[in-house]
Amino acid sequence: MPRASTDTIAELRAPIYDLVRQYVRSYRQCRYADVRVEIGEGKVASVENGMDKQSSEDYGFAFGVRVIAGDKATAPGYFGQTLGSADLPNLPKVLRAGLDHAYHRAIANAQRKSASRERFGPLGDALTDAALTPIDVQEATVSAHYQRDPREVPLQEVMDYVREVSRTASAVADGVVYNYVYGGTMLNRQLFCSSEGANIDQTSALSEGMAYIVAQGNEGVQELYDFIGHQRGWEVVTGGVDEDYFQLPNLMTFSTSLARDTVDLSNARACPMTDKEVVVVTDPHYNALVAHEVVGHPTELDRAMKYETGYAGRSWLFRDIEETQIGKQIGSPLVSAYSDPTMNGFGYYQYDDEGTPARRTPLIENGVFQGFMNSRQTAAIVNAPPNGHYKATDASLVPLIRMSNTFLSGGESDPQRIIRDVEHGYYVVGHRIPSIAESRENFRITAMKVYEIRNGEIGELYRNGGIMSDTRDYFMSIDAVGSDFRLFSIPNCGKGQPMQTKRMGNGGPTMRGRARLSGAS
Amino acid sequence: MIPTSQLRKAAEDALAFLRTQDDIEEAEAFVASNGQMLCRLNYTSHIPSNGLEEPKSTESYGIGLRVVLNTPEGHKASFGSEGSDISLEGVREALAKARNGAVLDPEFTTLPRATGERRTLSNYHDPMLMRANDDGLVEAGWQVIDGSLRTYMSSEDLLAAAEGGDLRKLGLIVSGDVTILQERIAVASYAMPRVQMDESSLIMSFITSMVERRDAKGSGYGAAQRLAELAPYDAGRDAAEGAIRQMDGVRVGDGEYKIIFGPQAFMDILSNLIVPGLNLGLFYAASSPFQGKLGQQIASEKLNIYDDGAAPGLVASKGITCEGLPTGRTELIRNGALVGLMANWYESQRILRDPKGREKLGVDPDEYALAMVPRNGFRFGTGGGRLYDRDPGISGTNIVVEGDGRSLEELAREVSEGLYVGRLWYTYPVNGLQAGDFTCTVIGDSYLIKDGRLAEPVKPNTIRINDNINNILQNVIGIGNSRRPALIWAADEVVHTPEVVVSGVHVQAIAGYMEQL
Predict the structure, then answer these.
(1) Is residue A52 assigned to a domain?
(2) Fewest 10 Å CB contacts: which of A445, B207, B229, B411?
């Protein structure tokens, strides 16, 4: 029996391209179809307290289909399926069956849409035909970047390294009472073919590590977890990353450092909670989560257009097509933000999941809101050019508008000077856990560490602190932006129904503003 | 979906094949076929939309093996799986992966053994749901939209609020989904060689509707094991009616409030803050907010919570776990005391041998073994499904909060002055689960309570709760009687809870600038 591997995609490319092109021609009411097929090969290992728990070498194989069809009205239909090597001999038949399901759903959906337009009078007017903004249709092959091919790294090597990291983290101090360490490396290859003629074969490497540490100290139990990752080979986990704005320690240094921080925090006092705004200096790692939660999410156009009202929420930046914050000042002139899939980072790609070439998208420039990340369908509704942010976690799932490398951009201030200029305030270091208001108009995000700043000097370390603020007020208060921009890897962004958990890049520089300090309740 | 007869035969054949392998000490074969059909809605009266945005589905089937291998280094435990192939060829592939990934886990004891409990739930699935088709899926989604839009069109309050009678300008939104889960499993092992089958189905709908120009949001939801027991139209109608009631809400100031948490809001608290802390695995990792408190008072005496995966008619019930063990009722909190924890086989055995087990639980694990019976070992996927390609974790099923027979009106009279909170958002343990600190915002279905009655609606997204879960549990002062299944986004379990009243909840006013936009 043939085995599915990333190399299989090359063999599937021509027949799938032909299938999609011919499928649309075979049904009069079929307006558009696309197929995504994805195969990944990877190795993972996990260890608790230095004891082996899991190791695995396996592949993933899935496909997803979108069809737009209809007569009096047009509407979409979708289908997705997880596959295995056993499906390879019959793959054209399996894909065809998937297309048929999606087509039938689209037709039934279009008929019901048409009937509802009539049934609901003026309220039915909003039910418009499904349409995609035209794009420059591409045929392309994109290669992965790595030094060590994930397929060639022995599973035992992954296991041995992760075990050693966990044992070393356990030995950092007596206060470490629990640790979990994970490491993995994989190669993913995705084929996108559309009835318009798109034929895009993209391969990416991905390697990552995670540590979760629990420590017991004089002030109680403290837990921290964090993550490293890059679209490279296993070398980034064992050797770290040292690129321009993207620097990561190796998993050993990273995990032991996290263990030391956790122990220190277990002996630190709880952070005070203030009822008034104070001066806060936030570091690049903390601002990566600010960029994610408070900049990235509300600038996803599907969310802004209410698609996520029942789940991940809406956006305060968009009331309707005529009433948005585009062109308005929502932050100080020092605040700028972008989403750029073409940058090296965890959110890198060349084409999104509907074949749109990726491009840098301005979100905020000099404090003025610029616009949204979008898909072809949402771009058509707001009459904007598609900017390539339509991505799925897995080929069997329907894509959503997603961040790529999405960040607050760097400024010109010396980060040390930003702290030295503070008479009294707090230095907020490392992101932890967010809780954001539904339309992202307010946030509370906790930090790994909070230090008091007195007369420009770093002082007492506090645990369980963070900041909370109304979004616009916080961005308007920013009075210094550092030159130390850095990009980080975010492993677990949840969105959609069923929830899709996605990896991406987020980042920022050191920033200074005003917010309420949050502490222990 | 793969027929049950094929799944059964695959499990039998797999077990027979595994027994021929000299290096295998014991093994378990888990064969599963899953379907998830889902229609996701997005109707917006003020923005062009598809109405039914995503009629879609995902399918998978395959076999997962857990094996214990005799090796020169000792007994190694491992897992391997193969998708889309439950023939012997698929078994061989899965076994090869298991051998390749085997690890020497010193805390591993054995694969699951019979617990002495008996299965009580069989043949409870709905064949109609198992046969759901494309047309039915699409129709279910449009019925929700019908329910919402007809409600809006017939509302005199809404017509009066609309400029020139044009409802479109009010910004009407219908969002959410109707989901159908279809699950079939077969499991057999050396220790429990008789193939056990389980077939479960579920339909649920979780709808949010808004009159956005009036900052009004309402929810409609339901979940049932049988198609005939859930009407998508009603969920759409309920959400729209809730939104109409919420129009022109008021802001609330900072302070400490007595709050009646509605079923969905209390589910948010349970699913994000309490249920995770009742997972035995978190006690091993010293990460539960109830660390060292088994047998101790952790909540008001009024609070009684249990997990029941075998309750007939409750939507999250299953016949057996994904380890082939009977599901059943696990008492978790009784009269405010922590009396039990949710477990799978691995964790139930590990804690008995953990040198720090007494410290972690607060009691001798051997004496409390019956408080940690492995009735919760499931291989749930995100959004449902019992997946062949993963080890069993620990998941809740039906989390039930017992009522004490008081109506909402009685609860409101007791509160006198306070808040009714119907829906929370982003309820997260922001300083880590163990610390218990949490925060969330109030996003809809909420009211002021004045003079012992529900009064004006609370404007969504204008207050944040900052508190600690231990305060919430200790300060429960009343529980209602109208228990119903509640759903939240991406939770494994279904919570069946009445309203719960808590005193002294810390509330902060937020986002005042939105009034000036």
Answers:
(1) no
(2) B229
Say yes or no: A322 and A222 in one domain.
Answer: no
Question: Which tokens is A258 given?
Answer: 């996290």
Beta-strand pair A361-365/A368-369? antiparallel
Counting residues of chain B whose pLDDT is more than 90, the rounded percentage is 93
Say yes or no: A392 and A443 in one domain. yes
In 10 A of CB B410, how many CB atoms?
A: 14
Please check whether residue A148 lies inside any domain of the structure.
no
- H/E stretch holding A486 reads strand A486-495
- Which tokens in the block code for residue A163? 């075990």
Do A279 and A516 contact (CB within 8 A), yes or no?
no
The answer to whether residues B94 and B65 touch, using CB atoms and an 8 Å cutoff, is: yes
pLDDT of A469 reads 98
Within this chain, do residues A476 and A389 fall inside the same structural domain, yes or no?
Answer: yes
Predicted pLDDT at B485: 82
pLDDT for residue B407 is more than 80: yes
Q: What domains, with CATH codes, occur in chain B?
A: 4-245 (3.30.2290.10), 255-377+394-516 (no CATH)
Beta bridge partners of B418: B449
Distance of CA A519 to the CA centre of its chain: 27
**Chosen from B426, B443, B445 to mutate, greatest number of chain A CBs within 10 A:** B426
What is the ipTM score, two decimals?
A: 0.96
Question: Number of residue pairs across A and B with CB atoms under 8 Å?
Answer: 325
Which of A84, A220, A500 lies closest to B82 in CB terms?
A: A84
Report the residue from B42, B285, B439 with minimal CB separation from A307.
Answer: B42
**A104 and A165 housed in the same domain:** no
Average pLDDT, chain B: 96
* DSSP SS3 for A516: strand
Residue B484: pLDDT band with limits 50, 70, 90? confident
Contacts of B447 (CB under 8 A, 6+ apart): B419, B420, B422, B454, B455, B456, B457, B458
**Location of structure tokens 């929420």:** A313
Asked whether residue A342 is assigned to any structural domain, the reply reads yes
Q: Does the beta-carbon distance from B425 to A155 stay under 8 Å?
A: no
Q: How far is A384 from chain B (nearest CA, A)?
A: 14
Q: Both A313 and A432 in a single domain?
A: yes
Q: Is A2 inside a domain boundary?
A: no
- The pLDDT of residue B233 is 96
Cβ distance of A128 and B48 shorter than 8 Å: yes
Nearby residues of B455 by Cβ (< 8 Å), 6 or more positions away: B447, B448, B449
Query: Three-state secondary structure along B210-263?
Result: EEHHHCEEEEEEEEECCHHHCCHHHHHHHHHHHHHHCCCCECCCCEEEEEEECH
Contact criterion met (CB below 8 Å) for A144 and A203: yes
Same domain, A128 and A221: no
Q: At what angle do helices B88-101 and B4-19 cross, to 10 degrees?
A: 50
CATH code assigned at A210: 3.30.160
Residue of B nearest to A66 (CA): B56
Mean pLDDT of B162-181: 95
Q: Read off the pLDDT of residues A6-59 as tens digits, 9 standing for 90 and up.
A: 999 999 999 999 999 999 999 999 999 999 999 999 999 999 999 999 999 999
Domain limits at A168?
155-195+204-268
Closest chain B C-alpha to A108 CA, distance in angstroms: 6
Same domain flag for A173 and A90: no
pLDDT at B482 over 90: no
Residue type, A240: G
What HEC string does A456-476 produce?
Answer: CEEEEEEECCEEEEEHHHHHH
The reported pLDDT for the residue numbered B405 is: 86
Report the pLDDT averaged over residues B354-383: 96
User: What is the C-alpha to C-alpha distance for residues B413 and B415, in angstroms, rounded to an integer?
Assistant: 5
Domain count, chain A: 3
| B180-213: pLDDT as tens digits | 999 999 999 999 999 999 999 999 999 999 999 9
